[in-house]
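Hello forum,

I keep getting stuck at the same step: I have a sequence, I want structure tokens, and every attempt I make locally crashes halfway through. Rather than fight my setup again tonight, could one of you with a working pipeline run this one for me? It's a single chain of 294 residues.
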Amino acid sequence: AVFNNSLFTITGANFNSNHEGFYFGTFTENDFNNFQLNQLGGAFVLKNQNEKAPWKKVAFAFNYDMANNFNNEYFVAGNSPNSIDQYFVNFANGFVLDEISALPGESISDAYFNIGSDPNLGYPALQGFLGFEGFIIDPLSDDPNNTEYAGNATFTGTVNQDYYVRTFGNDSKFNLNVSGQYTENLFLGMSFNFQGIDRRRVTEFSESGYDAASTLQDVFFVNDLRTFGSAFSFSVGGIAKLNETIRVGASYESPNWFTLTDELFQYLETGVNASGAPSTVVVDPNVIFVFPEY
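Reply #2:
Ran it on my machine without issues. Output:
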């Protein structure tokens, strides 16, 4: 079909979310509001004033649409019987210490980058690295071939945990359309479709409430994961008017060709009570891992 008249549209929307969380016996409730422009479009119709010309009209149209809005946040808290130290233990097990620690003369940033870039180590070894350098875990023995680890958290019953999640970004679509009417019986159109993907999730995890004699006293762990990319597709079609009652149409719609990239940033801060001397340990590699496109 071909537009008969020019037009312009714009739409705003308010996105509201309500989260209720029940985390190990503790109830939390969060409200989040976000107003955004989520649609903008228009069509421009050029009508041929020469009635004898075969091309009767041509229309150009565009439209922007926010398909998904990911701006959101929520918070939960409670007392858990499980400490985060086991997260790091589970990832570290199976690696020797040299594979998950900074080597002599190697900075935290260099070690984090080198471990993450090694296809034989990767993400699991990175988590073990953070746990060891943050004094959350230790090897079970001094044997250089040791591959088993234990957590440094000592607590009675439960630990206090806070979990704060923020998400950002959106999936958007932008369409360009060209259509025309040839004589009174043929209508043709083509559309080019561009999609933008940008999603980010930031999690902040805090844990405390250990025994006074525990080596580990508190943990603050940040994970910032972003996925972004683009997609393209196109479609063409036409409708032929054979007579007043019969019309024949045909169309083709291409696949969506996506290109996506993931980025990861991590930060760890711990309170440590080593030999009765409290201290704060910051493991901040200041490295953003950019994973291969897919």
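The chain has a mean pLDDT of 90. If your local run keeps crashing, start a new thread with the error log.
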